[in-house]
Each structure stands twice: as C-alpha cells, then as structure tokens.
Amino acid sequence: MIEVPPPPPPPLAEQKKGGGRKLAIILSIVALVVVGAIVAVFIVVFKTLNADPGDDVPQPHRAAVKAPRPAAGEPSWTAPDHHWVGLSKAWSADHGSLFDFKLQQRGLVSDGKRAIEFRDGYLETSSTATAMVTAFDGATGKRAWQTKLQWAHTASPVAGNGVVIVPSGEESTYGSPTPLDYVALDSATGKRLWRAHVDSRTISSDSSALDDGRSQPGGALLNGVFYYGDGNGVVGVDARTGKKRYAFTSKKYSTNSAPIVAGGRIAVLARPTPDDYPETYEVHTFPPDLKRYTSYKLPGSSYEPDQLAANGDVLVSWGDSELSTTDVRTGRLLAHVKLDVLASYGGVIGRTLLVRDRAGANDKLAGYDLLTGRKRWDVDPFPDDYSLGMLDVADGTALVAGDGLAIIDPNTGKSTFTRPTSFSVTGGLAAPAGGHLVVSFDRGIAGYR
Fold it and tell me: What top-level class would CATH report for the domain 32-448?
C-alpha cells in the first residue's frame, strides 16, 4: 500500500489572507447586530414619543369622585360622580399632519353614542370656508357618516335629542346685523332635517375663544326644544322638526349672547336699545315658554361680558378679562373676579371654575371657587412648554395639553395623568361617546377607555 503524503501547508501570506476573510465576516456580523439593535431602540423610542397619549397605561381609568355638595341655603350646582384619572387608547383615526396643520379650527360634540367632529380651514382660506363634519362611533371609532357644511366657528354646534344643530354662516361683521342659519342634522345619519334663518345673529363674535379650543354653544336644548337668539328676541323650535314653539321679542333690549340653560330657565345677555354709553349689560332669564323674563344687572360700568355658562343655579358670565357668578334664582351676585388681561375662562366642574392664566412666562391653569371667586390653586402641567395648547372639560374631567396631554383634578389642581408626546398638542376638544372619552387632536381623533 502506497501512502500519499499530505499536501504542504499554504504559504504564510495565504494563511494571513484566509484569516482576514474570517475576521471580516465576524466583524460584519457584529456590525449588523449592533446596527439592528440601534434601529430597534430608535423605533421603540420613536413610537413611544409619537404614540397617542394614553398608550400602555394600566386600567381602571375612571374613579368615583368625593366632591363637595351644595350646603343648605346655597344655590344648587351639580358635581360629577366620577372623573377620568388615566387614558388608554381604544381606537384612533389619523387625519394626516399636513391636512391638520392647514385646518386650524375644530368642534366636537356628542349625542351619547357618536362623536361628531368639525374641522374648518378658515384661517387658510376665508371666513366662508366649509367645515368637514364627520361622525365616529364612540365605541369602535368607525366612521358613521360624513358631510360638508359652512360653519360659523365662533359658536359651537349643539347635540341632543338625536340631532346636531350647527350655526352656519360667514364670520360676523362688527357693528352691523349679520344673518345666520341654524342647520339641523340627524346625528345617526347626517341627513339634513331643517334650516332656520335669523336676520341678526346673537352668537359671540369674539374669536379669541378659538385659541383655547371650544367656543360657546350657538344655542341651548331644553326638553326637546332648541333655543336661539334673533336680534331683539329669543326663539324656541322643536329640535327634531324645526317647528316654532315659543318666541319672545323685546322693544327695549337687544339679545347679546346665545341662550343657555341655567337653573331650568333660559338665560341670555341683553343690553338696552339704543345702546347706552357706557354700555350696561343685564342678564334676562325666561321660563321655557318664553312668556316673561326676570332681569338683573351685572356688576360694574366697564364690565362688558359677551359669553355665558352655567352650573345648576349658578350663572357664569365673562368677558374683557372679568368673570362673575350669579344666583339665577334671586339675581344675587356671588363673585366678581378681575383676571389678567390675557386670561380666559376654561369651564366649570363642580364648584371649581377653570381659568387659563397667561400672566407669567408660562401659561398656568388656575382653579377659582364658583361661589366666592377665591383662587384655590394654580398649576403648570408642562413646565418645559411656555403655552397650553388645549383646555376642555368633558365627562367630569379637566384636560389640558401642551407637550402632551394631562388630566387635572379640579378639586386639588394635581395631575392624575400626564403623557408627553414628541409634538405639541396646540388644540383639541373632548366629549364622551359610546363609553369612551373621545379627544380630537391636531392630527386626528382617538377614543380612550
């Protein structure tokens, strides 16, 4: 048997060359692993920063509230029995950042089952821009219907009794009567039900409220009747059919605000005609049939309120950086507060009036006592953001936004939930629908559980 000797080893240069190939392969694998890890970390961080507020937040999110109740002899006011203390996203619909940055004004109302969103591009085009109106199923986020409609955005739509009633018209002209239509849509289908025309609108022409998100409602619903102002009077129509039920016209006063419900009555701002100087404002309250009214004057000759709100028997009026509360049963002034020139009213929850305070370097949220006007607390939810981009009250909950979204306990001013985002939430509104809290943001809309 002949043995064949093994081949001689390769030259030293070839050995080094082969080892270099192996080392290059190993280094390449290590580099790919490192790059993959970096990319994975970047994706996680990016998704975390850009996630909708509320992702991955443990439940439960609603808690019972032990809020103070009216004492004997005090005017009646309501306090929520629960509020939201956290948010976990159930669904969302992204409108696209480019689309949203062009559409600056929004509205959001609810019929209980559906959230109806309004988006208007008037800042980009003109006062006659058409709003996109979309109804979302509050439980699932599915789009129920969509339509286009001209919207007078200084007044919020009103929802209830299966309808959405929209103030429709061009931006008002100061110093002259401006017409307006009220258009009623079926909240389940978007079908147009009726239209009512007024020759002289009484909704607020103050667009400063638009910077804060929600404008004052364009009318009031009470017992199936929708009430709106028209020049020197107030009209009540059937909310489903538009048929006129009640009407009142004054020869001495002009109506200077949209009607609201206060203590089971219809309340409006009014002033004498012809106008006095300095202007004097009164509040007129009517029974539901509008047959007669009770009036009382507001404090101070320089106080020029242009908007109203109410919690039970307590009526809130504000304007020109002043705010007052009144017992609608007696006309007794409860509180009159002078605010900073840039401050704005933000809503009422229980016995707390929410005010956006812009006196310092950073915007703050302040809570004032509804009956005394005493400041109870102030807080800066986003100290790294000089401005608050959103303030709204929904389902017993105060929501504020800036570099994210926060929930503020109205009784203490403490944050119960804060979620930062990589983008500033410059505007937004909230409404309960389908068991969720629906929030309309700059870039889209989401339902939270």
Answer: mainly beta
